[in-house]
């Protein structure tokens, strides 16, 4: 949220762990711990959550899911406070999220009578939800020149930064594209003109933030402790309908803007004429 102008900062339901993440990052600022160490820690936390789900320790599973979300924010915060951006860390973070998301849902399928196909479709839905949130958020950040590193799509293997090994970046980039490429293309196909539309209102972005990974894991944690494990997978499958609802709302507001008059539309296009082609932009770290 710090990369947005004050008037466009919205309540991000998926970012509830940010305050604690900042505390963790600041406490590690002058240590030998790196953002990748924190990423590895959230991977470990994720595996603990999976073990607890399978064993029926749902309160512990909920704790490790939420702790994983906090650490997921802390690695990026640590990269910022140490001023050490890393392609290796960014891609490792995203690939780890993808794999853990699949394992979280598979573990829930294992302890319930839910069909494996519902599990599979719920996973696809979960990823589409997160991709839409990422898509709109990066467009919003880019419009205000508040972010020059986060991008919507990745098309070229980046050059390794100082201290990184190019081969590691290449491998992780290929994995990243394998994991997210199809979802990015689907969302872009569904709303390819989003970058040309009006600035998305705060209430809308707050609503879309329920698609963020942090909030998704919070929902899973809550349902586990409330004894609602059987409806977790059907919930994420059905909630995917909201992807089309949000896209429809976004397009409706854009259409309203054009109908309000040519002068207003022209002003917006002039204001955001420096917005780069969304297909050439990087994904959120």
CA(first)-CA(last) distance? 13 Å
The CATH class, by name, is Mainly Alpha
CATH architecture: Up-down Bundle
Our count of helices gives 11
Structural class: mainly alpha
What's the SSE blueprint?
Layout (H helix, E strand, L loop, with lengths): L17 H11 L6 H21 L2 H24 L5 H24 L5 H28 L22 H25 L11 H7 L4 H13 L6 H8 L1 H19 L2 H10 L14
Helix pairs in contact: 1-3, 2-3, 2-4, 3-8, 4-5, 4-6, 5-6, 5-9
Describe this structure in words.
This protein is an all-alpha fold and 285 residues long. The protein has one domain (6-280): Four Helix Bundle (Hemerythrin (Met), subunit A), CATH 1.20.120.1760. It has 11 helices and no strands. It has helices at 18-28, 35-55, 58-81, 87-110, 116-143, 166-190, 202-208, 213-225, 232-239, 241-259, 262-271. The protein is globular, with a radius of gyration of 19 Å.
Q: Keywords for this structure?
A:
single chain, mainly alpha, Four Helix Bundle (Hemerythrin (Met), subunit A), disordered C terminus
């Amino acid at each position: 949220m710090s990369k947005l102008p004050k008037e466009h900062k919205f309540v991000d339901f998926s970012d509830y762990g940010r305050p604690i993440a900042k505390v963790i990052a600041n406490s590690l600022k002058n240590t030998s711990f790196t953002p990748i160490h924190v990423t590895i820690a959230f991977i470990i936390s994720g595996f603990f959550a999976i073990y607890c789900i399978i064993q029926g320790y749902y309160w512990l599973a909920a704790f490790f899911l939420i702790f994983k979300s906090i650490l997921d924010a802390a690695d990026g915060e640590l990269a910022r406070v140490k001023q050490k951006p890393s392609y290796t860390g960014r891609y490792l973070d995203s690939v780890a999220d993808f794999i853990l998301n699949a394992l979280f849902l598979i573990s829930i399928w294992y302890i319930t009578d839910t069909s494996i196909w519902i599990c599979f479709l719920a996973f696809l839905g979960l990823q589409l939800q997160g991709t839409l949130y990422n898509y709109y958020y990066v467009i919003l950040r880019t419009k205000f020149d508040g972010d020059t590193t986060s991008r919507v799509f990745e098309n070229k293997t980046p050059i390794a930064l100082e201290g990184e090994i190019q081969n590691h970046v290449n491998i992780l980039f290929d994995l990243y594209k394998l994991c997210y490429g199809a979802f990015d293309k689907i969302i872009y196909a569904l709303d390819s003109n989003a970058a040309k539309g009006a600035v998305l209102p705060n209430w809308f972005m707050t609503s879309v933030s329920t698609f963020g990974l942090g909030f998704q894991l919070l929902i899973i944690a809550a349902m586990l402790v409330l004894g609602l494990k059987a409806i977790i997978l059907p919930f994420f499958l059905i909630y995917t309908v909201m992807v089309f609802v949000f896209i429809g709302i976004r397009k409706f507001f854009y259409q309203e803007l054009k109908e309000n008059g040519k002068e207003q539309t022209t002003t917006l296009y002039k204001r955001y004429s420096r917005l780069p082609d969304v297909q050439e932009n990087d994904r959120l770290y």
